[in-house]
Structure formats: structure tokens, C-alpha cells
Hints:
By secondary structure, the protein is of the alpha/beta class. The chain folds into 2 domains: 2-128, Thiamin pyrophosphokinase, catalytic domain (Rossmann fold), CATH 3.40.50; 134-208, Jelly Rolls (Sandwich). The protein has 5 helices and 14 strands. The strands form 2 sheets. A 10-stranded mixed β-sheet has the order 4-3-2-1-5-6-7-14-9-12. Strands 8-13-10-11 form a 4-stranded antiparallel β-sheet, with no helix packed on it. β10 and β11 form a beta hairpin. The longest helix has 11 residues, at 80-90.
Amino acid sequence: MRALIFANGMLDGQEKIPELIRPDDLIIAADGGANHCDALGITPDILIGDMDSVRADVLKRLRAAGTEIVVHPARKDQTDLELALGLACERGASEVIVLAALGHRWDMSLANISLLSAFEVPISFVDGPQEITLIRGGRQAECHGKPGDILSLIPVGGDALGVTLEGLEYPLENDVLRFGATRGISNVLREKIVAVCLRQGMLLCVRIRQ
Length: 210
């Protein structure tokens, strides 16, 4: 089961979002993310948060529509997005796509990106033409796109060891991407499917559609 979460950041590429939604997706609004859903004519299955950002009229409509509403206190240790991700995992999601997780505030954007490492389920942040995922050591990932798309790989938490890249303009073979260096930025897809292998460490993978 796939979960689609609307956060409360900037929502880019609204016109493409209806194409992204599958009929059997679990749609979760993280507090003010419900305002994005309302603007798009989408009724989320679940609304979660402390309800400080969702508009009163939107909240009223969702109650009337039968949306499950999970209220948390304002004084809490997790952001609304972290709560939404945890709920998606509890409900059995095997994949999560997050929309509107970036923009407005750098602290929130950076904290949201760090959540990619907090859950074992694959999570993708989609922001218009850009998609951010996390690749963990000991795994091989496939990145799907079109030739000419940009692919950037950014080490987090330390050096990324044993990096092998296939199907890209600049391939690597069992190489190292150093934490705090920019060597992995702005690679280019040469194939529709490219392979990224990582022996140890973590890589933020950012694909930008051209």
C-alpha cells in the first residue's frame, strides 16, 4: 500500500498532482497540508496534527466528509510531518510520497529532509520537477527518469563508500563520495534507468526532470 502525504510547505507543480494519485493510495494531510488538498479538490483519508495550520472552514468540511482526524497537542516533540510519516508506517504503507515538504522555512525544510533517514520504508519528497530520496549503504537503488535529467548524490552523516554508478554521464566504480564535498552534484542520466550501488553510508539522491 502506498501513502501520499500533503505537508504544509510550498506546493509546486499542482497541475501534475492528480496524475500522481492512484485510486488505492492512502492520502494523509499533515495539518495545514489539508489546505492544499482543499485547493485541489482532494479529500484526504486522514488529517493529523495539532490543527494550528488547517483553516477552520477546511476542517469543518473534512469532518462532514468523514475524514479521520487525529489530533495531537500543540506542545509535542514531533512535527506534524513526522507524525504523518509514523502514522503511514503504522497503517502498513510500503512506500510513501510526500508533497509540499519544502519551502517557506529552512529549518523545517532541513528537518523534513532528515526524516528520510528516520524510517525504513522508502520515502520520496516530490517538489515539482524535483524528487528527493535516500539511499542506504548495502543496497542498490534504481533511479528512473529520462536521458538528460539531472541526478545529484549528496553524502549525509559521513563519507559514502563503495559508490558505483551506471547509466550516468559520469560513472563511478567502487569509489568514495566525501561528506562536505560536491563531487556528486549535477550528474546526468544517459539511460531511462540508472543503477546506484552504495556499500556503506547514506546518500541523498536528488533527481530533477528536464
